[in-house]
Each structure stands twice: as C-alpha cells, then as structure tokens.
Amino acid sequence: MAVFEGTFTQAEPLHFAVVIGRFNDLVTNKLLAGCQDCLKRHGIDVNPNGSQVDYVWVPGSFEVPLVARQLATSGRYDAVICLGAVIRGQTPHFDYVSSEVAKGIAAAAFQTGVPVIFGVLTADTMQQALERAGIKSNHGWDYAMNALEMGSLMRQLRSSGTQAYPSSTQSLAPSLSNTAALGEFSTDTPPKG
Ligand SMILES: Nc1c(NC[C@H](O)[C@H](O)[C@H](O)CO)[nH]c(=O)[nH]c1=O
Ligand SMILES: CC(=O)[C@@H](O)COP(=O)(O)O
Prior knowledge:
Elements (H helix, E strand, L loop, with lengths): L15 E6 L3 H17 L11 E6 L5 H10 L5 E9 L5 H20 L3 E8 L2 H6 L7 H21 L15 H8 L11
Parallel strand pairs: 1-2, 1-3, 3-4
The chain binds ligand LW54GNZ2 and ligand LTPLIIQW.
The site of ligand LW54GNZ2 has 14 residues, from strand 3 and helix 3.
C-alpha cells in the first residue's frame, strides 16, 4: 500500500491558470495578490508574460466555471485556481450566483480530472469579504497553497501509474462515473506496480 501526499517544495515544474471574476474587483484583486505572493514564494514565475501562470478575467463569478473547465480541458495546467467574490445584496440573486459557481467549479474538476480550486468568497457583507482578502488574512494565499498541493499530488498519482480518470473519460464524462472513478483514491488505493 502507499500514502500519497502533495508537497510544496518542488513546485518548479507546475503550471497554473487563474480565473478571476471582475465583479467586486476591490476584493478579487486582493485575492489575486495573495495568490501570486504565495506562488512566487514557492518558486513559481507569476509574471503573466512568463511560462508558468496564465490569467483569465471574466465578468463575474457566474462565468468562472465555464472558463475554468475549458482551461482544465486544455491539459496545459496542473491546477486551475478560481477567484471570485459573491457578496449578498437585497434579493435572492446571491443564492443563485453562489450556488452555481460552487457547483460549476466542482463539476469542472470532476469532468476534467484537473484540480479546480474553489477560491470564491461568499460573504454577507463587503467587510466580511475584505477581511478574508487581506485585511485580516488573505484566502488568496490559501487557495494558491491548495493548488500547489493538488498539482503536486496529481503528478505523483500519475507517475505512480494511478490516474483519477481513464484517459477516454478525460473530458465531459458523466458525473456518476466520475464519482466512481474518484473512489479509486479512497483508503483502498491499490498498490503501486
Ligand atoms: N452579484 C455578483 C455577481 N454577479 C454577476 C454574475 O456573476 C454574472 O457575471 C452576471 O450575472 C452575468 O452572467 N458576480 C460576482 O462575482 N459577485 C457578485 O456579488
Ligand atoms: C451577489 C448578488 O447577487 C448581489 O450583489 C446582488 O445584489 P441585489 O440582490 O441587491 O440585487
């Protein structure tokens, strides 16, 4: 049997895409800064003109999953980091946007086998969101850590001969079979070789 765990010390070969919602960009720009700071401190070249991180801006959180899935499907990235800020208003709109973006991001990961990081704040107030985007702590940093860990973990799983999905189901596989495929990595992970 084996134990697989992502590391943070050998990030040099990893490639990331970051999808950012422009809505509430007072918050999302701060999440992005935290995310870049973390990646940079782990040896990643975060320059948009470099070769390791691509950035895609979309109008709002609702658009994030579509773009995240397209990027994940490209096979160019070890992880896709999604950043957004959904802040409750006076109508039920918040519930629709936050629910769809959460489901959509999960679906993008399941459908592609690529880690898609849920970095969308869902806050009752702007104050709550800002506190989580740099005033108290910056969750952008945490989301980058999640991407580093998952990118590293998936590389390990691939090189050990285990794969989250058979390559034939790499894109747009039905969610049921994807869920079953993920079960391969429960505590019953088969031995290597
Ligand atoms: N209200 C918020 C939105 N709304 C915009 C949607 O995300 C979307 O862009 C629009 O409905 C067009 O499809 N987006 C956020 O990211 N945060 C919000 O609080
Ligand atoms: C997240 C939202 O939907 C929010 O910004 C919209 O505000 P409102 O419900 O007042 O229209």
